[in-house]
Amino acid sequence: MRSVVRENAASITTFVLICIIIGFIILNAINQMLDSEIRFNDSNQKISLNTSKKIVEIHFTDIKNNILFLSSIPSLKTFAYGNYRDMAEKEDIAKNLQVLMANHKEIYKLRIVDGSGNEVLTAVNSSYDPRNIRGFKMAEIATPITDIKGAEKGELNATVSVFNMLRLLPDNIFIINDTGNAVTFNSDESVETTNLHYNILGRNGKIYLSKHDTLHYVTANITSEINILLGTRSNEEFIKKTIYERATIPVILTILFISLLILLAYLNISRFKELIGAQKIIIHSLADTTEWRDKTTGRHLNSTKEYAVLLSKHMRKKSKYRKTIDKDFLVCIADASPLHDIGKVATPDSVLLKPGRLSDEEFNIIKKHVFIGKQLLQNDIEKFTTKQPFFEIAKNICAYHHEKYNGKGYIGIKGDKIPLEARIFALCDVYDALRSKRHYKDEMSHEKAVEIIKSERGEHFDPDVVDAFLECQEYFNEISELNKV
User: Fold this and answer.
1) How many angstroms separate the CA atoms of 396 and 49, rounded?
2) Domains of the chain and any CATH numbers
3) 269-313: per-residue pLDDT in tens?
4) Euclidean distance between CA atoms 448 and 454, whole angstroms
5) The model's pTM
6) Which helix (H) or strand (E) holds 484?
């Protein structure tokens, strides 16, 4: 046994050290998690308080606006103009007051007072329970009343219960009344009052009621004279206990299965690489279906793929595109480019392989390949709910590589509304078409193709794409020469 230990001392020591390091890492992670959870809870308490403050202030503003609206209705102005003598109008206005109180149960009473201070009309909320005062002040909101000629004839006065604001607040928020008690409105309509045993100072802040019990509070402004003090409590000891309970089993499992996780990670990475490789094989096999029908199309796929990558790399040199054209973009555009004409699988051989120029009708048929290709890819995206950028780039190239920057392409979109990958590939597609021999035309020289592309800057092609092309056009020529049949 001792010899075995001596022979494997280095391995055992390494294993023990790894376990100790892992233990320290996990312990440190738990402490950081605890600190983070406490900070997160503290932040949530503040957010909850400030949200509740906004709710209360906005609700009181709503009440004020409703009272202001009520004071401006024509019937009240007419009533005021007649010095509040018309009994029919008085009855109608009394109904309006009751409607407002029905919508705002926190309104205890509404009064109309004339210019001499005499009460003309008083409406009391029948659903209001006067026992619910519980040490809270009543907020008074008043707005002037003017008659139909604009003369001030008194005021509309609302008495609002601060206590009933509890109905609007989340469960963890309470109101601190004038006696320093926390008042909570329970879901069963009961009210709970708790003595905080602490004097609240200031309009907002944080108080440690005990070693682990914290009170956060903030003041909501109701009127110039009335404010509401809102509070919430958190218990750090409870948070610590919860974190440690949650961490115990994961810590044990982490120590026991760390090697297994590493192995699984390795196997998953290997499997992922195999899947990526399989995906590329399927993609290129799909793209090669066009080559079986049109040999020039097959060469065209290889050339345009290389052009697209080359041009994208030069576009990336511009700060404007540096974030968009990243390594993933370059990989995706390389893999997606061969699919740009996949829609031609639905094009009849009589049109696709016709020796000579196409008629208008035949040209309209071949134009449909962009719509067919786009729909094929869109169907797969929706069917498999994939979010891989490759499929989006492939779909955009397939759908929009015949669009022109001036909007005179197959579909008719223009400028930056054409996806960047399609704008890049459009130039690559045209350059290769110009350089390639067809049944109806001879191959064009590189220099002539460059001149045509330059002349189409801002018309057929994005000016930025043309500028990048001119920087690397010699390499375009090299690729074209290497890919000739």
Assistant:
1) 47
2) 1-245 (no CATH), 294-482 (1.10.3210.10)
3) 566 566 666 566 666 666 666 555 555 566 788 899 999 999 999
4) 10
5) 0.47
6) none
